[in-house]
Amino acid sequence: MDQILSIYNQFLSYFPAELHGIVSLGLAVAIVIGIIKVIRREFVYIILLVVLLPASVPILKNIWESIANIVQFLLNKQ
Fold first, then answer.
1. More confident residue, 34 or 47
2. Is 10 inside any structural domain?
3. CA distance linking residue 75 with residue 68, whole number of Å
4. Quick one: what percent of the chain has pLDDT higher than 90?
5. CB 51 within 8 A of CB 58
6. From CA 63, how far away is CA 78, in angstroms rounded?
7. Measured distance CA(68)–CA(24) in Å, rounded
8. What is the CA radius of gyration of the chain?
């Protein structure tokens, strides 16, 4: 996670301070759109994964929480 934050801060340094909020919002929107596109395309496989592998539910929850934390960080970063 520290590496992601470091890369993000390095990327953000290319923009003026006034645009950091807009850039963060744009990145958050891009991540959400990307996730929605992947879920739409792979929805059947995700359902099969949850049904066939009950142990995958906590893993998927952990992945979802990590993605939510990244998006929340991007929206709070200004």
1. 34
2. no
3. 10
4. 4
5. no
6. 25
7. 14
8. 15
